[in-house]
Amino acid sequence: MPPYVHTFTPRFLEIDSQGVLFNMWYLAYVDDAADGYFTHIGRPYREWVEQGYDAHVAHVELDWRGSVAYRDDVEVLVSTARVGGKSFALDVAFRRRGEITCTATIVYVLFATDGSGTVDIPPQLREALGEPRPLADQEAR
Length: 141
Hints:
Layout: E1 4-8, H1 23-40, E2 53-64, E3 74-83, E4 87-96, E5 99-112, H2 123-129, H3 137-140
Antiparallel strand pairs: 1-3, 2-5, 3-4, 4-5
């Protein structure tokens, strides 16, 4: 399955004094793209709490290769990188004019909404996440 693609154009307020997308906004766009990915795979995040579980971010890594500037058209590619027992990871790549400017990996751990602790990934979510397909540079281009 090809990666999910979320698009955005940086707003003026997101640009720092160096004329590029301020680093904190990358995490906001990772979050926004992940939400779109969950809907794309048929497991919208808004339904998780109703089903008794929620996800907490356990780890995020970002690696910059380039920059994104004001009014650039940006694509954020998302795919399943790993699926474990109680956690899963997504690979994310920011692409501008065909160039990867930033890559990220975000790890989520599932928790019961009743406060009882971590839970196994429900079968429906596991199936929707599918087989891990990490974004390789050639796929992200």
